[in-house]
What does this fold into?
Amino acid sequence: MPDFKDIEGNEEDGHAASARQAFEKLIIEILRGLGQQNDDGYGTTIALIDLVKKLGEAHVPLGPLIGETIAELRDSAFVKSQSERETEMKSVLEAALKLTVEYLAEDGLAKGRQSKRDTALKQAIEEALLSSERRSRDAGWSYLQTLSDRVGKWPPGKK
It folds into this structure.
């Protein structure tokens, strides 16, 4: 959550803080909409209406409000972690979000970035799996062996 201080470090008034919270809510609703199969856009619409209302009341520069709120959300989503496992998962989530953005992008360089982001996502997933395996081995078992057992015999049909 943003700390609601302006560029000089002074506490923002309630209207500015409300505008930041409304912008944060809009970002979250957009991401929820992208992640749901049958989102009707209602939550995003309500959040956008609320943001426009709060911006009208706040009289704050839009650029810093947007930049600072995005930076705070990025820190919360991808940087601040409680454990090694959480850090690994956040790396996977960040890589997946970056790849998703490139799938949505329509500029001429998006395909090239997709390839790079795809590789980064695969690496993040592999690192998370390897870390899980290291932790499980420290505890006397094998995470990867458990996954392998769930797959079954390979190739299928051979005994």
Q: What stands out?
A: The longest helix spans residues 110-138. The CA atoms of residues 42 and 80 lie 30 Å apart. The chain is about 75% helix and 0% strand.
